[in-house]
Structures are given as C-alpha cells and as structure tokens.
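TEACHING EXERCISE
Course module: macromolecular assemblies
Task: Read the component lines below, then compare them to the predicted structure of the full complex.
Student: A.B.
Group: 4
Components provided:
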Amino acid sequence: MKALVIKEMRLSASVLSYILICSAFLALCPGYPILCSAFFTTLGIFHSFQNAREANDIVFSALLPVAKSTVVKGKYLFSVMIEAAAFLVMTILTLLRMTVLSEVPVYRLNALMNANPFFLGMTLLIFGLFNLIFIGGFFKTAYVFSKPFLTYIIIAFLTLSIAEALHHFPGLEALNAFGFDHIILQISLLLAGAILFILLTFVSYRKSCERFERIDL
Amino acid sequence: MSIVELAGICKTYPAFKLNNVSFSLEEGKISGFIGRNGAGKTTTIKSMLNMVHIDSGSISFFGLPLSGNETEIKQRIGYSTGTVSWYPRKSIRDIVDVTRMFYRNWDEAAYRKYISLFSLDEKKKPIELSEGMKVKFNLLLALSHRAEVLILDEPTSGLDPFSRDELLELFMTLRSHGVTILFSTHITSDLERCADNIIYISQGEIRDACSKDDFRNNHGNPGESLEETFLRLEREARQ
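Instructor-supplied answer key:
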C-alpha cells in the first residue's frame, strides 16, 4: 500500500495538487466566499487524475502485482491525503480567526461565511462530495472524467451557495458564529460534516472497487 | 512442460467475439502469436493479464489459476508492448524507483546489466525515446524483476530492421536462459527467425497451435515462406 501511495505521489500526481493545498489560505481572506478553497483543493486533485490518465497510469497500475482494489485504494488515499493537508491548514487558520483575529473589523463586518467549525464541516462535506461524485464516477470507466467532474462542479457550487446563504435566514444566524459563540452547535455541525465525509468517501470507495473489478481496460 | 494454459476462452463484444481460445505455452520456448490486425491477439493477451474479463474459460500460469492468484502470478510475469508508453514525462529513473518497490524479486544487477545493454539513459523520459527504445524500456522493467514468462504484444511493430534484429537476438538469449515468451506479431519474418511454436488466430478463433515445423507441414506449400502461408490462409479464410 505504501508503494502505491508513493507511486501516486511521484508518478501520477500533478504538481497542482500540492500547490492548490495553499488555496486553504483563502480562509484568511476577508469578504471572500472561503468555502471556495475546498473546491480549489479538489480542482488540484482532479488535475492529478487528468495527469494519470494521460500517462496510462491505470493500465500500468493494473499490470503491477497488486490487487485491483489496492489500485483504487491508492487513488483514494492520495486524494484524502491532499484533502487532509488542506483541511489541516484551514483548521489552523480557522482557530486563528476564532481566537486572536476574532475581533478584527474586516472579519466582523464580513457578509459572507465566517471561518468557524461550520465552515470546516462544510469543507468536509465538499470533499466528501468530490470523493463520491468525481472519484466514484471516474471508476465507472477508469477513463471518462468530464461527466463526473461537471456533475461535481454543479453540486459543489449549489452546496457552496446554500451554505453561504443559510446564515442570512432568520433563526440561522448562529451558523455564522464568531469566536466561540454557539460552540456546541458549531462543533456538532463540524462532527456532522466529518461523519458525512467518512460515509461518502467509504461508500464511494466500495463502489469504485466493485466497478474497477468489473471494467475492461 | 506447459507453463501457461488457456482453455476455452470466450469474450463477446458487440462487433467481435473471441471464441473458445485454447493454447498452452511451453517452458523456455518462444511462441509466436500471429494473426492480422483485429484477429483477437490483443484481447487474448489482455485476458491473460486480467485486464479484459472473460465470459467463460480458464487461464492458469505455473499451475495456478489466474483468478485468485493474480498478484502472485504478476510477480512472475512481464508484459511489454510497442504501442504504449508509461508516464511519458517522468524520467526512467523515477519510474524504475517506484516500480522496483512492487517486486520482491527485483534484481538490481540485472537492471544495471540491461540498462547498459539497451543503452538507456536513466535521465531520459519515455517521451524522448524512439519507438525501439520504448520497447526496450518496457522490457527492462519486465526483465529486472526476473520475469519467468514474457508476454510481448507486437514489440517489434514500428521498429527499424536493425532494432528488430537486436530484439530478436535478445529474445533468443532469454530463451536460452529458460524464459518463456509469447510474442504477438503480424510480422511473420520475425517468427521465422526465432519462434519455436506458432499460435495462429483468425477472426477470434485459434486456427492452429503447434510447433513451427508442424505449422509448415499442416498449412504450408513446398517452398512457401511463413509469411506466404499466413497470407494465403488469411485470403482463404476471407473467401
């Protein structure tokens, strides 16, 4: 398994996957829809899939002495690693915005989503949707990725728009909490995001293993 | 002794059918797999690598069924093709560094020997290699993990006569070291030179699988070359 992850990192990955982890720093950007940072991270992972297809990576991997499910696992592990790296950066920056930067006027007067645990939960949901729709869709053929990526873009931006709009509805202001306000609700939403991420990724992984086992290369 | 056995392989596509393909490969022999383009050579080879899922039939290597032993079998076989290059923009060194991690029998001395024999530069990328050098690079990966069976899908297609000659020499040297080779091609003169056995496929069906001499006796006319026999058989099949 370690060898397969190294293969993903050294041979299949696009450098954009690593560079776009830095999009997590958008979480510090005032007056910006910070949930886009999650989308940009997945855009980087998409580039690695594109790179891999052009390099005949799937066929090369299928010829290696590993089970086909292991090839699938390698792709998921790589994607989750990139997502985890971006999430870690976002978490650190969110903690900064919740503590030392919580009273900074540019953040206080922000009409868009605030960096808080709800934002982190939504980030995990976007990552889960990418794993489910894009990666799961890719393994239907191990070749076609335009349709799953387009579907993911539409659903991701719908989710993002709804998440950005929610706190403007009466009664839902707590979603945009500052500092440690409404912390129980906020942590609950983060946990819900984490559970959804695990669930969507796991379902997608299982389905991809089944699909990859069946398809002819 | 048979080291690879295919029995009754069937695979149906909308416009093509692989029908009851059966043959075996003898240990330490070169078996030429001939047939015109679209006859079913690549589909058969992909079935042997479990890249194409067969509808029925069985495939075994070293007495082990492919189904359930794929990982173990792939440790002991090598595949090379003249038509695909892996990771065209990565250096040979990078590709080899990763590939060697997957094989328990990776032989660094063999790798050094063949990279020198093939005059391959580790710093080069597959995209910078000629077609012949790409085939050699694929072979390098197969030979460096001490593959006992080499499955070569049209390895000499697109090569100049000198490069083809070099490769055929290499196959014969490998045979003398006990390596079993399945060599798919539509260039019959290559088989004339190095094959021990001929497996002839036409329209998805095996027409004959026997020694080269038996193939000549069964199908050839006096004074006819293998290529002439092959062309005549194909013309007869189309009529």
